[in-house]
Design a protein that fits this description.
The protein has about 180 residues and is mostly helical. Helix content is about 75%, strand content about 0%.
Amino acid sequence: MNEIASKGQLRLSYLRWALVTVPSIVFLGFLSGRIANSGYGNRWFDALQKPDFMPPGWAFPVAWSILYVLMGLALAIIIHARGAKLRGVAIALFLLQLLANLAWSPLFFRAHQVTEAFYLLLALIALNVIVLVLFARIRTGAALLMLPYIGWLGFAAALNYSIDQLNPDASALAVPALQTQI
């Protein structure tokens, strides 16, 4: 027996990492959205003109939940790949792209910086292509798990761009305050 760890032990090690990475990423994504008051129900966002291809409101939390789970699983695979070349760089760039991802909602929904949010998405796509290439060199499965995320970022960039074009003065859009009856 020349193995340091059995296949079962290695699988358990991966599962332990996944039990940390998946809930952490899902929670951080949820927290970013809550802090920014993301999506429908945000009076500023509701007042914006939307493109015809805008999905219904329920699609965003469903899509992001799935994407955050896939991202967490991909990260767990890379963390678990001990001894792999470029592992440290891949993890660092993944964490950098995650920070950029988490910054998008506050930039768009809280700060109303639609154009800047679009440029952040373009940078996020470029960064994720690099992460994808690094993940592919370490573990192909991790790279495959990142593909839907990159696709969604492309779709999000198209939405963001269209909203920016339809609402050139979005940052100055004043939404009336809620009215209360006393």
